[in-house]
## 1
Amino acid sequence: MKLWGGRFQQETDGRMDDFHSSIHFDCRLYREDIEGSIAHATMLGECRIIAQNEAQVICQGLKEILAEIEAGKVEFDPGAEDIHMNIEKLLTERIGPVGGKLHTGRSRNDQVALDLRLYLKRQIRVIQGQILTLQEALVERAEANFDLIMPGYTHLQRAQPILFAHHMLAYFEMFQRDYERLSDCFRRTDVLPLGAGALAGTTFPIRRERVAELLGFSAIAQNSLDAVSDRDFAIDFLAAASLIMVHLSRLGEEIVLWSSQEFGFVELSDSFSTGSSIMPQKKNPDVAELVRGKTGRVMGDLVGLLTVLKGIPLAYNKDLQEDKESIFDAADTLQGCLGIFAPMLSTMKVRGQVTKNAAGGFALATDLADFLAKRGLPFRQAHEVIGKLVYYCIQEQKELEELTGEELANFSPLFDEEALNLLSPEASVGLRDHTGGTAPNQVVRQLERAKGLIAKARQDLDR
């Protein structure tokens, strides 16, 4: 007999049981479900809605069930549909009819919303810790290769010289925003839905504030309809997770390019590379490629849940059962990618001479245009002069660094010997000395800021 089967005269079809059941995936919410039930039962006892000794028996039974689940001694019953009904069934078998009092003043609708919020609060903090580890790896790579110069790119064409450290810290900034987005997501997830009942609240004199205190929620949902049907917090998480994966994928794509023979900028550790079953010479950047591929999976989780939500009326609808697998998959995928990416990055070797050689040549052209502009020539005219100079070099098969003062003067009388001092990657990098620039002393400031943000975030997570 189903726990909800009082008005039914026929047993559900076995096919219906299989299709309807969610225990095969929501079983992972057992800890959150039990913690929420303990808090709810404690409040029921304190408010004298049930006897205090009954609340104590319920809480003790739930704690024992939790211990047995974690010891691998519990086999969930698909016939009980979901984790909520499975726990209640186990409890009633253990302590008798008093177990049926646990569900007083609540519904599965507010119960599942609670479990999902508790789960996501934990996952967000785990992921934030992983982001900090990745940021630490980026800072370490930046410091270890601080003097290395590489070409910065636009349109995947060499553009201007930058410090390799500057490039690493660009990704630090991306992941810093990701960290902050998760903090914002945590704040909106940290809202207690329990007490909303099925949709309209409950007739029992509950104390929602007490449940929030016991479970560590900082706020309480203010509308019962919204409390049971809201999944905005889940969308927030999936959107944040998708953007983190996009950032990982962008860095992964660069590592794939950089580790190719065509670029040759980096070499990945053997520990985080694979070979070919047929080509003995191959060393493949599979971690970066897999992360790049899994990004689409997490983005799909986001689109899937958005599609579920777009057409359902208030309040709860069974469609919302589809939220959990998207959330579980995104959380698992993201944690797996973050967990492998940081050590791959930490063990990556950078070939400084290769990156420096690539940073010269026509990547210095903007500095010559800036030189003419500083001497009074309108920048647009300076741009044209240097464009013609570059064309001359192409025709003569020369690099800009190989030009003489006489050759420069042929293109503009404003050029003098000082212009020749600009024609090195080191000089180019050093000139960009302003907040956010790639000059070495500015990058030192960026590194100090990055380390300060990591230290503060670590302290916040440890509280």
## 2
Amino acid sequence: FNARIETLATSRAFKIPFQRQRAIIPAAGFVEWKTDGKQKIPFFVDAGDLPMLLAGIWENWRNEVFSCAIVTQPA
């Protein structure tokens, strides 16, 4: 999932994780979508041989569900 940086501090879902449960998420890359008319075309963005490090937040709900979200910003 993604967490938009514009609403991170005020969202009920992300407020506490934003304050106390931050993470660095390693990734090989990510997919962006280009729109060509009505067609969406995926393309992979990477840093070559280096890992990408993405800002993230995490949550552990009742010691049963562990989840995380990548923090995103407008292009």
## 3
Amino acid sequence: ALAIVVGFGVGRALGLNPRMALLVACGNAICGNSAIAAVAPVIEAEGQDVAAAIGFTAVLGIAVVLLVPVVGAMMGYDATRVGVLAGLTVYAVPQVLAAAAPAGLAAVQTGAVVKLVRVLMLGPVCLILGLMRSKQAEGGRGPKLHQMAPWFILVFLALMAVRSLGWLPEAILPPLQVSVSALTLIAMAALGLMVDPRAVLRAGPRVAAVAALSALLIGTLAVGVLAVMPLG
């Protein structure tokens, strides 16, 4: 919540229109391109604003992945703290796994849990923005229900419930794990298709500055949390 509010404020201070500032803020605070794509129809963002926000976020996400292991080593973090740092700062789930991997399996598992909780915030954020948009819209017209509740969040919660309740036979878990690993690898590789350095130039200096400052804010908040939070 703090990252979204402050990121939006930075965007407005640097001259971005309200929708663009909100797209960049949500992308940095939650889960990058997925958050931007989910929030865009809720706030009725323009196509060029969505493209610019996604373009720079894709490039910046790679830089964050490379920086997390470096920052973790400089700060002397153990595997758990590296995982928390990755989960709080990196955009996409596959990128979190890549950023935490140098610190070991514990870092990967911790990073995945922290990141997935962060991703789950996309549901409440879209719902709140949708309700705000409905109040502002003339004639009560606002975003539809499927725009305010991202379906992949609902499916994730459903599958998590099925697994937690023990409704999956133990015999199918190993094959599922193989499938999960394969799909994760494909997702990590597919991120490369979204990375275009030219997108930085197309996005413009103000969007680049806002995205970079928002990412720096997230990193600062994460380091601050790690400094005060006792981790076993």
